Amino acid sequence: MGPRPLDHFRILYVCTGNICRSPIAERLTRRELDTRLNPRVAGRILVESAGTWGHVGAPMEEHAATVLDEYGADSGGFTGRELLDEHVVEADLVLTATLDHRAQVISMGHEAGLRTFTLKEFTRLVRTIDPGTLPDPRRGADVTERARALVRAAAALRGWLLAADPEIDELHDPYGAPIGMFRNCGEEIFHAVDPVVTALTGVRAPH
Fold this sequence. Notes:
Strand order of the largest sheet: 2-1-3-4
Protein name: Protein-tyrosine-phosphatase
InterPro entries: LMW_PTPase, Ptyr_pPase, Ptyr_pPase_sf, Tyr_phospatase_low_mol_wt
Pfam family, one: LMWPc
Distance between the termini: 42 Å
Organism: Kitasatospora misakiensis
Order of helices and strands: EHHEHHEHEHHH
Structural class: alpha/beta
Helix content: 40-55%
Family: Belongs to the low molecular weight phosphotyrosine protein phosphatase family.
């Protein structure tokens, strides 16, 4: 396992089974990147997911796929996988559903602590970062350079900007719940992903 290539930036979403929360986050992020960036640039940000108890080879949960379809995101061709060391090694940014997932990723080693956050924690942190302090792709900076700078800035802030309640940084599991709970979860994920993609790319969502 060599160093992560600098010409790509890899995001890894982690939940428990890799059939509900992390697939929704993965595919919504992919949609937002493809909507905001030209294909050549968008293709340099890779988005994947895995589960700490991943349902290996399983399809996405049906309600999760429905939620993605309602957002206009691609739900096809997905298969669950278990989180492996190589996934953590290759990731530039790991975003988990819960604090327990974050702790599990960090416990795997690979110097993952400074690049692993819960999704909602990362969103909370990046909202406080002045975009003007990040490399600007519109002025010739590389999108991967900006993304790495954002992760470093968020890691530096984490010890100073603690959540008032740890629950704020958690994304609860809708597995086995009715479609309405999945829609609520999808809405939470979408509102967390949107500012993250804006911060990563420097491009706001089109209206």
